[in-house]
């Protein structure tokens, strides 16, 4: 980093060179109490009215002590300037960072320092209802792209000084603000330090979204299960922080990551705790069944239809056999083609504009549904299995990417090895899930190793009368190596 020059003309020349061909760069020469000074800003990132009324007017109209440049600079810091933030910068790189963050920089001739005043004024999206985590009950707020607004949404719900925000700057070119949020009386310090170490070691050139940092926080990217949770709901994040988890917010992203993330978290939602326990428990069990059905149902269908027809009722055998006689493909090939066509239609519906996306859905339903069966390209039983599986995979949406790939693997395994291969695949997935230990906490906890104080709220939803008596932290789960002296 290069320090600012005492000479104002040298500083001006350097900034004009660095920001050459930048039409949004604003530079104005002014006089403060008779001394030459510079005002720097970026058009579109500052509020022009605030700059004029709250910064320029007090600076130009005040009679400040100006015996030496340093005296004038110190007087500026105590002047009646109504800026939201005030920072001092001594290097060109620091001044450039503040300019890109919506600050106004003031430099005085003879002083190798810059006073950076917060006057941010860019356009930003207002808080709205979450589009990915919609709930029938509960709050309708979600995170936005502004990291300061996101911190305020969390702070408003957790009114305690124990809520901490560590801020980093990541990305050599973007210098993106990244915040580590945690409760210092609940989160284990080793987890907080581990997250910070992984973020600092990312060494990326650009950080434009949370997805850039996700692989560096994830414990093992080679598995089908992610150990990093993602949410855009402040209430969900607050509940995770109260359990001792650590969150990562990225400027420009409405999604917030948190760790450690466990397998059981995929089946829980904040909406569960707004519904009666008996209904919330029923929905949770339904989610578990839907998850396993979305992976293994197509494979079991192919395996039974190819190798184990004796397991089916006689009438069902006749229907499957009659449908397969009319199609030119084997049951395995037929299932793979159908699922690939479904994924193509789904991807097209997501990427196209909403007005056209509905048309794609209608065409897909007609072409894949009615026309292919009528033409004898795909059997009706296969189409029914695909429809059931597709709907089931959306019930546990956080695991959709994993189930989409595992579903195809299940079909291939079932078509090659039969039901024995499906059983082996299920065992391998179980071993894979149990082998993941994000930040020393087993991914499969509290199911295995079993934790008696947490497990009852995994498959069913307990009442608040029982939940209020429990203060379980994530590092206290049985099998966690974060704190070996505490095992529930």
TrEMBL record:
One of its GO terms (biological process) is spore germination. This is Spore germination protein. Keywords: Membrane, Transmembrane, Transmembrane helix. The chain crosses the membrane at residues 285-304, 316-342, 363-396, 408-431. Belongs to the GerABKA family. GO terms for cellular component: membrane. Pfam families: GerA (PF03323).
């Amino acid at each position: 980093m290069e320090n600012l020059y005492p000479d104002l003309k040298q500083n001006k020349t350097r900034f004009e060179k660095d920001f050459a061909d930048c039409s949004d760069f604003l530079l104005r020469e002014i006089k403060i109490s008779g001394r030459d000074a510079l005002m720097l800003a970026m058009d579109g990132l500052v509020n022009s009215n605030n700059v004029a009324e709250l910064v320029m007017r007090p600076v130009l109209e005040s009679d400040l002590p100006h015996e030496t440049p340093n005296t004038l600079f110190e007087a500026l810091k105590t002047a009646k300037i109504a800026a939201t933030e005030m920072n001092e910068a001594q290097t060109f790189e620091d001044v450039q960072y503040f300019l890109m963050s919506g600050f106004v920089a003031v430099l005085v001739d003879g002083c190798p320092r810059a006073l950076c005043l917060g006057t941010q004024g860019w356009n930003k999206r207002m808080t709205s209802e979450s589009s990915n985590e919609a709930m029938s009950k509960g709050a309708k707020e979600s995170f936005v792209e502004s990291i300061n607004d996101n911190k305020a949404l969390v702070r408003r719900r957790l009114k305690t000084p124990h809520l901490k925000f560590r801020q980093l700057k990541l990305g050599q070119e973007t210098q993106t603000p990244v915040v580590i949020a945690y409760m210092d009386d609940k989160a284990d310090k080793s987890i907080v330090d581990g997250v910070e170490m992984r973020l600092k070691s990312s060494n990326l050139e650009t950080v434009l979204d949370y997805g850039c940092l996700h692989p560096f926080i994830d414990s093992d990217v080679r598995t089908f299960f992610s150990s990093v949770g993602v949410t855009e709901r402040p209430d969900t994040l607050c509940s995770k922080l109260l359990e001792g988890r650590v969150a990562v917010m990225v400027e420009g992203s409405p999604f917030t990551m948190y760790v450690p993330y466990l397998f059981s978290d995929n089946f829980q939602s904040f909406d569960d705790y707004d519904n009666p326990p008996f209904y919330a428990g029923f929905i949770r069990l339904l989610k578990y069944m839907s998850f396993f059905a979305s992976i293994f149902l197509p494979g079991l269908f192919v395996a039974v239809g190819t190798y184990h027809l004796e397991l089916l009722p006689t009438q069902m055998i006749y229907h499957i056999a009659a449908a397969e006689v009319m199609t030119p493909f084997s049951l395995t090939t037929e299932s793979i083609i159908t699922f690939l066509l479904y994924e193509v239609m789904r991807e097209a519906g997501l990427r196209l504009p909403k007005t056209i996306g509905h048309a794609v859905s209608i065409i897909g339903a007609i072409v894949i549904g009615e026309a292919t069966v009528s033409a004898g390209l795909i059997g009706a039983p296969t189409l029914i299995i695909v429809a059931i599986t597709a709907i089931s995979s959306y019930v546990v949406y956080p695991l959709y990417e994993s189930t989409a790939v595992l579903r195809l693997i299940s079909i291939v395994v079932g078509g090659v090895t039969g039901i024995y291969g499906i059983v082996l695949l299920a065992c391998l997935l179980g071993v894979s899930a149990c082998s993941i230990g994000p930040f020393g906490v087993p991914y499969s906890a509290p199911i295995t190793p079993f934790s008696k104080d947490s497990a009852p709220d995994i498959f069913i939803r307990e009442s608040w009368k029982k939940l209020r008596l429990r203060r379980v932290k994530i590092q206290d789960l049985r099998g966690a190596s974060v704190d070996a002296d505490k095992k529930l």
